[in-house]
Amino acid sequence: MFKKVLVGFIAGIICGLFTAGGGLILVPVFLYVLKMEPKQARATSLFCILPMVIVTAIFYGTHNFINWKTGILCAIGGIIGGAVGAKILNKIHDKYLKAIFIFFLIYAGANMIFKT
To answer: What is the pLDDT at residue 116?
Structure first.
């Protein structure tokens, strides 16, 4: 139990600092440390990240860091995209999901390195 709370604590700190944590921290830990099935790891990560994101957004909002118009419009798209992604998740084999996730992380990392 302590290990799971510690994982959440670390993910929460990363969420608060970098607005990341679910895909970058929780999914790999759920897969490789807690030995969850890939689809269960992703779904559990989403469930865990929701409260972290809400709390972080409240803190960011109280410091006036949120661009509300952009945030609301992106949230609308995110709700629709999340529903589509969840439906697609059931149709894609785990090995392809893993490959797509690895490609996404490499792409995101390369962008952070070369565009700063």
So the answer is: 65
Q: For the chain, what is the domain count?
A: 2
- The DSSP secondary-structure symbol of 57 reads H
pTM: 0.71
On average, the pLDDT of the chain sits at 87
Note whether 71 and 60 are same-domain residues: no
At which of 28, 50, 65 does a domain end? 65
37 and 51 in contact (C-beta within 8 Å)?
no
CA 116/CA 112 separation, integer angstroms: 6
Distances (CA, A) of 81 to 57, 59, 78: 20, 26, 5
Given 50, 65, 80, the domain boundary residue is 65
Among candidate residues 19, 27, 5, 2, the one with its CA nearest the CA of residue 100: 27
* Domain shared by 55 and 24, yes or no: yes
State yes or no: pLDDT of 58 exceeds 90.
yes
Domain assignment of residue 45, given as a range: 1-65
